[in-house]
Specification:
This protein is α/β, with parallel strands linked by helices. The chain has 14 helices and 18 strands. The chain is globular and about 55 Å long. The chain binds NADP nicotinamide-adenine-dinucleotide phosphate. The site of NADP nicotinamide-adenine-dinucleotide phosphate has 35 residues, from helix 1 and helix 13.
């Protein structure tokens, strides 16, 4: 039915490749393109090389991308390389007439911003070209937007507060590692905190606000208020929200390492001269840290990510908690990767499936909460991410 091109052969790319390969009735042809061909070949070999074609590409290079897209003629690109490549790939998709999906908003290499403005600016061009671009279709962002849309559609007349809660209670056995690309992860968690309240953004020091929250099947975990990109789109698309926040759990061990990394300058994104050569400290750090895609073996425990929502239904105050728990061991058994790659790759696959089958196809640039959540919610358990709801419970937030 559709030919798809996956760009990026890291932890998330591994899951997407395996998951799309399992839906041959929809994804008839698959091309996996990335910077390092050997990584694409390793993924393809594990799935069956006849099922996936592999190609080397520099996704920062628009003309190289356009040539590749014109040659391969996929219906859509699933972009799971890095956020730095978002605009180059969107440009190439526009030029070659290909639909687009990603899992993280565009980041300029020299400044950590986590803003949608650059990608939202493409809306009219995609609309005019009759092409769909789905932004941020991982778990958070991604499923968190779908969960919110589902809650607003089925359980509330108006939603008033949203707390996205993200717990990784897994243990990978390493003193320090990040669960997805270290550069993006460290940029995200070291920035100042920010949340939405009564029509404006309130800034905090990094990790200034924290409290223990209870997670299903896990128990209490210290949870830190951080800024996360989907807050920007969710407060725009659900204007009844009076407050929107994002919480993530970190262990003491992780935070201590992070403090040291920052204090000694290794989290810096500004180039320095080292032996006459320009290097970016955080990129060098990435090279010596464990590869997130290789954390799977021996990773124990589970993740729990969900939305805790307050609002009104039929004139009465109501609380609602919707979440998914995902076990690292099960993700590893199925795909050879850990749960963070898994919980990102599965929603990207579902978004792609809905796009090519027409359920989530509408010209323009959209966040996940702007589509009908129901077909997505139906697909989540089918592809390995069951979800659960709790009504009228203490949300703790
Ligand atoms: N929404 C969510 O819930 C969520 C959660 C986690 C991650 N993410 C996003 O998912 C994406 C992938 O994460 P990951 O953990 O899989 O990262 P990763 O393991 O570092 O993989 C990134 C892949 O992109 C490739 N790449 C980098 N620059 C490239 C370029 N210029 N041209 C072509 N390929 C390039 C890398 O190639 P090399 O192998 O040559 O380095 C690598 O294969 C990131 O954007 C991350 O922010 C989203």
């Amino acid at each position: 039915m559709a030919k798809v091109m996956i760009i990026g052969a890291g932890g998330v790319g591994t899951v997407v490749a395996q998951k799309v390969a399992k839906v041959p009735q929809v994804f008839t042809d698959i091309v996996l393109a990335s910077r390092t061909l050997a990584k694409c070949e390793k993924i393809a070999a594990a799935i069956g090389p006849d099922r996936i074609k592999t190609v080397q590409v520099d996704a920062n290079n628009v003309s190289q991308l356009v040539d590749l897209l014109r040659r391969e003629r996929p219906e859509m690109v699933i972009h799971v390389a890095l956020p730095y490549q978002d605009l180059a790939i969107m440009d190439a998709c526009l030029e070659a007439g290909v639909h687009y999906l990603d899992t993280a908003n565009y980041e300029p290499p020299d400044v950590a911003r986590f803003e949608y403005k650059w990608q939202w600016a493409y809306h009219e061009r995609f609309e005019k070209a009759g092409l769909t671009a789905i932004l941020g279709c991982g778990f958070d962002p991604g499923v968190t937007g779908v969960f919110t849309a589902y809650a607003a559609k089925h359980h509330f007349d108006e939603i008033h507060s949203l707390d996205i809660v993200d717990c990784n209670a897994g243990d990978h056995g390493k003193p320090f590692a990040t669960n997805f690309n270290p550069e993006i992860n460290i940029r995200e968690v070291t920035q100042r905190g920010k949340y939405w309240e009564n029509g404006s953004w309130i800034e905090t020091e990094p990790h200034e606000i924290h409290k223990p929250l209870h997670y299903p099947r896990i128990g209490p975990r210290e949870s830190y208020l951080i800024y996360h990109e989907e807050l920007e789109s969710l407060v725009k698309h659900f204007p009844t929200l009076k407050r929107a926040r994002f919480w993530m759990t970190f262990s003491e061990e992780y935070l201590t390492h992070l403090r040291v990394i920052q204090n000694i300058g290794m989290a810096s994104i500004h180039p320095i001269l080292y032996e006459g050569k320009e290097i970016v400290p955080i990129q060098f750090l990435k090279a010596v840290l464990p590869d997130p895609g290789e954390l799977g073996p021996g990773y124990k425990g589970e993740t729990s990510i969900g939305c805790r929502i307050k609002g009104v239904k039929n004139g009465k105050e109501k609380t609602y908690y919707i979440y998914n728990n995902c076990r690292h061991e099960e993700a590893y058994r199925e795909t050879g990767t850990q749960a963070v790659s898994y919980t990102t790759g599965v929603p990207a696959t579902i978004g792609a499936l809905l796009l090519v089958t027409g359920k989530w196809k509408k010209p323009g640039v959209w966040n996940t909460e702007q589509f009908d959540p129901d077909p997505f919610m139906e697909q989540l358990p089918i592809h390995g991410l069951p979800w659960h709801e709790l009504h009228d419970v203490d949300l703790e937030v």
